[in-house]
Write a structure and sequence with these properties.
This protein has 74 residues and is mostly helical. It has one domain. It has three helices and two strands. A two-stranded antiparallel ribbon has the order 1-2. A hairpin with a 2-residue loop joins strand 1 and strand 2. Helix 1 packs across helix 2.
């Protein structure tokens, strides 16, 4: 991930990893808990949305900047 002007750019491999990992985690939760996969996907989505909504703009910027710094050092 890198910042390009006002845009945050993520390469293909990083995008796939970030996209696939939650799906795999939800599949494992569904298998272990006996709840539907759709339950866990919805739960994860709601939790992420709630956390995002509760963050201030400053917190969002700090999170993005911290992630960019980590990505630079990897």
């Amino acid at each position: 991930m890198r910042q390009q002007g006002n845009e945050i750019v993520m390469d293909r491999d990083e995008f796939l990893f970030n996209s696939l990992l939650p799906g795999i985690a939800c599949q494992l939760l569904a298998e272990d808990s006996g709840r539907d996969l759709s339950y866990w996907m919805n739960f994860l989505s709601e939790q992420a949305e709630q956390q995002f909504d509760e963050m201030s703009l400053k917190q969002r910027d700090e999170m993005i900047n911290a992630y960019l710094e980590i990505a630079k050092n990897v």
